[in-house]
Amino acid sequence: MRLTLCTISLMLTFSVHAEELVLPNVAVANEVMEQSRGKQSVELDFTSLASDVDGVSVGNTASNTVSGNNILSSGALSNSSGISSVIQNTGNNVLIQNSTVVNLSIE
After folding, report:
1. Who wins on pLDDT, 12 or 105?
2. In this predicted model, what pLDDT tens digit does every residue of 37-83 receive, in sequence order?
3. Could you tell me which residues come within 8 angstroms of residue 87 by beta carbon, excluding any fewer than 6 positions away?
4. Which range is the signal sequence, renumbered to this chain (predicted)?
5. Cα–Cα distance, 87 to 70 (Å, whole number)
6. Residue among 107, 104, 106 nearest 47 (CA)
7. Contact at 8 Å (CB) between 87 and 96?
8. Which of 19, 18, 104, 99 is nearest to 54 (CA)?
């Protein structure tokens, strides 16, 4: 199927030379250029950042339990990029909640 689509797309491909393009001989207003610019500012009216963690751990029992060691060796996150989160649990009947809120501004 992919080969068929590639073949059809190659058959439908055409080229246009610069001398074949017809452009109007009219100056473009600055306002039009500002709206077409790639680095356009976007104004947000509302931004909401929230994280609700509502876990409950009730009525748990732990008898004759053995907990192991948590080991995070050096270099465990050496090649990571972006946002990393590490959670370790050494106990029993533990409720672990994690949340990450990211506020990103692109200018």
Report:
1. 105
2. 666 566 666 677 788 889 998 988 888 888 878 888 888 888 888 88
3. 96, 98
4. 1-18
5. 10
6. 104
7. yes
8. 99
Tokens 């672990």 belong to which residue?
96
Angstrom distance (rounded) from CA 11 to CA 7: 6
Question: Residue 93 region, left (φ>0) first, then alpha (ψ -120 to 50), else beta?
Answer: left
> What torsion, rounded to 10 degrees, do the Cα atoms 69, 70, 73, 76 define?
160
Taking a C-beta distance cutoff of 8 angstroms, is the pair 67, 92 a contact? yes
Secondary element (H or E) of residue 19: none
Whether residue 54 contacts residue 24, with contact meaning beta carbons closer than 8 Å, is answered with no
pLDDT at residue 12, rounded to an integer: 53
Q: Record the pTM.
A: 0.43
- Answer yes or no: are the C-beta atoms of 89 and 96 closer than 8 Å: yes
Written as six digits, the tokens of 49 are 């950042």
